[in-house]
Amino acid sequence: MRAIFLIISIFLISGCSDVDESSASAPIAAQTENYEWKMVTTWPKNYPGLGLGAENFAKKVEAMSAGRLKIKVFGAGQLVPAFEVFDAVSQGTAEMGHGAAYYWTGKSKAAAFFTAIPFGLNAQEMSSWIHHGGGLELWRELYDEFNLIPFSAGNTGVQMTGWFNKEIKSIEDIKGLRMRTPGLGGDVITRAGGIAVTISGGELYTAMQTGVIDALEWVGPYNDLAFGFHQIAKYYYYPGWSEPGPALELIINKDAYQTLPDDLKAIIESAARAVNQDVLDEYTARNNEALVTLVEEHGVELKKLPDDVVKELRRISDEIIQEIAEDSEIAGRIASSIKAFQKQAAAYHAISEEAYYEARSQ
Ligand code: CA
Predict the structure, then answer these.
(1) How far is the CA of 68 from the centre of ligand 1 (A)?
(2) Which fold, 35-155+245-284?
(3) Ligand 1 ion: residues within 5 Å (CB)
(4) What are the E-state strand segments in 178-243?
(5) How much helix, strand and coil, in percent to the nearest 5, is found in the chain?
């Protein structure tokens, strides 16, 4: 037995070493090339959560590639304004971008589906749909005509309804309200009688302070505390019906991506997956403590939207999603894919996540 084991061991060891030697020579030559890329973002430089996600991605890629792919990260407005990130990467002004797909509904209405759907998937389900439910393939198909390859690279978890200076007692209180809400949530606010505005994060405080907008939603306690919205708004409403689990995106210029060797492509994919989870972990850890600071130190009034308001927003959301699904063939396929995924996830989560939350709170 021992002799057989030795023979097998020697065979395996020599077999392995043969494989190593034969496959090592070719990639070594390719690995000598270094890349210096630019990443433009829709976030203020080094902004908590969102901006740090982009910075951490760049650091991970540089470390994993031993410095062969260096990425210089630019905050909004440093190289291009926040809402020109998509075009800048599409045209190759920068090789990479970090932002959110719902900022690009002017390019394709279906882009909003890849950030968040009102009353749709939460963070866990969104990441699952993208990576194991066919979402990423659809996203890449949608962005192909723009010369872009998207990746999911972060998630904030359930957000908040937002900041208001008047109470929302019925759907009538939305009428005439100028509220910063991007994506599908904004479409819902507009149809409910409000006026949805899309403004980048860095400009929100001034917009609210000077009365350009009456209300705003940004993210949640961790990010909202950092911007100081408690200084200019009285009421902080929940739940985050418009953005239950918004995915952040990493976009890469397709031509630039194709010049990379396979190992650097694999490093980008792994770093994006790592950051996708890490951003969510950061929000989960920081939101709790930030909410305590907002309420206990700054006297913020936390309020829940009335059930009938939520119900009406839900009705409008379903109507709008259906209209976008009918807007183009691909939008229809994306909407069907999410709808089927959500149906199945909701059925299981009713007896797992929801049942557990219920059990834990008893
Ligand atoms: Ca938001």
Answers:
(1) 35
(2) D-Maltodextrin-Binding Protein; domain 2 (3.40.190)
(3) 159, 243
(4) 178-180, 195-197, 215-216, 235-238
(5) 55, 15, 30
Beta-carbon contacts of 86 under 8 Å, excluding residues fewer than 6 positions away, are 97, 99, 103, 104, 107, 146, 148, 251
Q: Are 202 and 214 in contact (CB under 8 A)?
A: no
Domains of the chain by residue range? 35-155+245-284
Q: What would the two tokens of residue 273 be?
A: 């997956």
pLDDT in tens, 2-39: 545 444 444 444 444 444 444 444 455 556 799 999 99
Q: Write down the pTM of the prediction.
A: 0.88
63 CA → ligand 1 middle, Å:
31
Distance 185 CA to ligand 1 centre (A): 9
Name the DSSP class of 76. T
3-state secondary structure 20-57: HHHHHHHHHHHCCCCEEEEEEECCCCCCCCHHHHHHHH
Ligand 1 geometric centre to CA of 234 (Å): 18
Query: Separation of 236 CA from ligand 1 center, angstroms?
Result: 14
Number of helices (H), then strands (E), in the chain: 13, 11
Do 52 and 86 form a contact (C-beta atoms < 8 A)? no
